[in-house]
C-alpha cells in the first residue's frame, strides 16, 4: 500500500471559489534528500516510523512526483508591510498540499515551503535557501517546546539546486504544519478589492472551520473577531515573557489563530534590552521587542477595518478595547509565575519595574536570570549575584526578593520547582542557530538535529547539553538577521 494511502488527507480550502487561490504544481529541485524528519510529530498523523527512509515519500513530499492525494495551491492574500498596504501578496514560495487529520481529530495544513514560483511570486524565484529553512525548522520546534502557540515543522530537505540571494546558496524545502495558514491579510485582500460577498463567504468558512463555537453567537462575525483578539493577546504574552522578537509583524504574517507564523529575522533576547531589534531591515525599530504589543493592536485594528462590511464600527472598537486588558492580565500571570510569586501584594508592580530596570542597566541575560532564580533551592544566591556587574545592587535586590518570597505559602523547594517549569534553560539563541547553519552548509547536519532534540524539552535539566545553555560570546549577541531567504 502506498504510504500516503495510510494518511487522512482532505482539501477544505478548495471548497472556496477559485479566486481565493491558484492551483500550482511544485517545481522539482535537483536531488532532494532528507536532512531532518520530526518523527514524534509525524506519528501523530499516521506516518510510519521509518517514513524518513522512504524514497516514495521523499519524492511526493518534495514535489518531485505529483500524486492525486495532494491538490497543491497557492493562497491569495494582501497585507500591511511595515505599516504600508501591499495588495500584491500571496503564497509566493509555498504551496498548501492539503490538510492532515491527526489521531486526535485535529486538522492541520500541510505546506511545502520553497516549492517554486507561483502567480504571487512577483519577481522572486519561489525558492527557500538552506539557512532560512534551518532557522524556521529549529525555531518552530523550539517554540513548541516552550509551549508557545506556533506552526510546526514536519521535515526538512536539502537539494543540489543553487538559489541566488546575496550570494549563491543551497536550495532547501520545509514541510510546515499549521492549524491554518489563514492570515489577517486574507480578509484585507477581499476588503480592499471590494469583494464583500467573497469576504462574507470567507468569514463564514473561517467560523465553520476554526471558530465553530461562534456560530451560535448573536453576532457570529463579532464573536470571531473577539476570539482572534484573545488569541493574539495570548500569543504576544508568550513572546514578551519568553524574550522572543518576531522581527516582521506584518499583517500577512499574523495568524487568525494566534500562532507564531513565518519565522524570518526572529531572535531571542540575550541581555535584557527592551528595545531589542532583530531585523536589520527594520531601520525605524517598528518591530522592536517592546513594540510588539502595540503593533499587535495596530494589526488587529487593520483587521477590524477589513471586517467593517460585516461588523458595526462601534462593536469593532469595543472589541479592540479588550486587547490591552487581556494582554496585561495574561502578562501579569505569566510574570508572576516566572518570579514564583503566587500571592498578590500591592507593592509587586513597583518590584517588577525595579527588577527589569536593574536587569537593563546591568545588561543581565534575560533567560539566564530567570533560570538561575528558579534554582535558588539548590544553589546559593551567589550564582544569581554573579550575573550582575554591581554586586551591591544585586545583593540588595536578592534580599528584597527573598523577603517578598516569605509572603508566599509554598516553601523554596516547591516554589522553585514550579518556576523551572516556566523558565527555560535552553532557548534557540541566534549564535547557536548560526553555528548549526555554518556546519550544515558544509554538509554536516548533526548540530541541527542536536539542537532540535534539546529544544523539545527546554525546561528539563539535560546535563549532557549544558554547553548549549552557556551565555553567548560577545560576537553572538544582538545578531541582526536579514529578511532575505
Q: Report the sheet-strand fraction.
A: 5-15%
The H/E string reads EEEHHEEEEEHEEHHHEEHHHHHHHHHH
Distance separating the two termini: 37 Å
Number of helices: 16
What gyration radius follows from the Cα positions, in whole Å? 23 Å
Task: Give the helix proportion (percent range).
Answer: 25-40%
Shape: globular
Unreliable residue runs = none
Main β-sheet description: 7 strands, antiparallel
Number of DSSP-assigned strands: 12
The oligomeric state of the chains shown is: single chain
Structural class by SSE content: alpha+beta
For the residues shown, what is the average pLDDT? 94
Describe the structure.
Helix 6 packs parallel to helix 8. The strands form three sheets. Strands 1, 3, 6, 7, 8, 9 and 10 form a seven-stranded antiparallel beta sheet that branches. Strand 4 (73-81) and strand 5 form a beta hairpin. The radius of gyration is 23 Å and the shape is globular. The protein is α+β, with helices and mostly antiparallel strands and 485 residues long. The chain is built from 16 helices and twelve strands. The model has no long low-confidence stretch (mean pLDDT 94).
Amino acid at each position: 500500500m502506498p504510504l500516503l494511502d495510510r494518511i487522512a488527507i482532505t482539501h477544505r480550502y478548495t471548497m472556496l471559489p477559485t479566486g481565493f487561490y491558484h492551483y500550482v504544481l511544485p517545481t522539482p529541485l535537483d536531488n532532494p534528500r532528507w536532512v531532518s524528519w520530526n518523527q514524534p510529530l509525524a506519528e501523530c498523523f499516521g506516518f510510519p516510523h521509518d517514513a524518513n527512509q522512504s524514497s516514495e515519500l521523499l519524492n511526493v513530499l518534495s514535489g518531485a512526483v505529483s500524486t492525486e492525494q495532494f491538490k497543491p495551491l497557492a493562497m491569495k492574500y494582501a497585507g500591511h508591510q511595515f505599516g504600508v498596504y501591499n495588495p500584491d501578496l500571496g503564497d509566493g514560495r509555498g504551496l498548501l498540499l492539503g490538510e492532515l487529520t491527526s489521531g486526535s481529530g485535529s486538522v492541520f495544513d500541510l505546506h511545502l515551503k520553497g516549492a517554486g514560483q507561483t502567480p504571487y511570486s512577483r519577481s522572486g524565484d519561489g525558492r527557500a535557501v538552506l539557512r532560512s529553512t534551518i532557522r524556521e525548522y529549529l525555531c518552530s520546534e523550539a517554540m513548541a517546546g516552550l509551549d508557545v502557540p506556533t506552526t510546526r515543522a514536519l521535515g526538512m530537505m536539502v537539494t543540489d539546486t543553487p538559489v541566488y540571494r546575496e550570494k549563491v546558496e543551497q536550495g532547501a524545502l520545509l514541510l510546515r504544519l499549521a492549524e491554518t495558514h489563514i492570515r489577517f491579510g486574507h480578509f484585507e485582500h477581499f476588503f480592499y478589492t471590494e469583494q464583500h460577498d467573497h469576504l462574507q463567504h470567507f468569514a463564514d468558512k473561517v467560523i465553520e472551520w476554526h471558530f465553530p463555537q461562534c456560530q451560535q453567537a448573536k453576532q457570529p462575525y463579532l464573536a470571531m473577531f473577539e476570539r482572534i483578539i484573545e488569541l493574539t493577546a495570548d500569543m504576544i504574552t508568550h513572546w514578551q515573557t519568553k524574550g522572543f522578537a518576531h522581527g516582521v509583524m506584518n499583517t500577512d504574517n499574523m495568524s487568525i489563530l494566534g500562532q507564531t507564523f513565518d519565522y524570518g529575522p526572529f531572535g531571542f533576547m540575550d541581555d535584557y534590552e527592551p528595545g531589542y531589534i532583530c531585523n536589520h531591515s527594520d531601520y525605524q525599530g517598528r518591530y522592536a521587542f517592546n513594540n510588539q504589543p502595540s503593533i499587535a493592536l495596530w494589526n488587529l485594528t487593520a483587521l477590524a477595518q477589513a471586517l467593517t462590511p460585516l461588523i458595526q464600527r462601534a462593536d469593532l472598537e469595543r472589541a479592540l478595547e479588550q486587547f490591552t486588558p487581556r494582554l496585561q492580565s495574561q502578562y501579569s500571570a505569566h510574570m508572576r509565575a516566572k518570579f514564583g510569586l503566587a500571592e498578590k501584594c500591592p507593592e509587586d508592580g513597583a518590584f517588577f519595574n525595579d527588577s527589569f530596570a536593574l536587569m537593563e542597566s546591568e545588561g543581565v541575560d534575560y533567560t539566564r536570570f530567570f533560570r538561575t532564580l528558579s534554582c535558588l533551592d539548590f544553589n546559593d544566591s551567589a550564582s544569581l549575584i554573579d550575573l550582575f556587574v554591581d554586586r551591591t545592587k544585586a545583593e540588595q535586590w536578592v534580599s528584597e526578593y527573598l523577603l517578598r518570597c516569605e509572603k508566599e505559602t509554598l516553601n523554596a523547594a516547591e516554589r522553585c520547582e514550579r518556576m523551572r517549569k516556566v523558565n527555560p534553560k535552553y532557548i534557540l539563541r541566534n549564535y547557536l542557530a548560526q553555528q548549526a547553519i555554518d556546519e550544515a552548509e558544509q554538509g554536516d547536519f548533526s548540530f541541527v538535529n542536536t539542537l532540535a532534540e534539546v529544544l523539545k524539552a527546554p525546561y528539563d535539566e539535560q546535563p549532557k547539553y549544558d554547553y548549549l545553555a552557556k551565555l553567548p560570546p560577545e560576537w553572538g549577541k544582538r545578531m541582526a538577521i536579514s529578511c532575505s531567504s
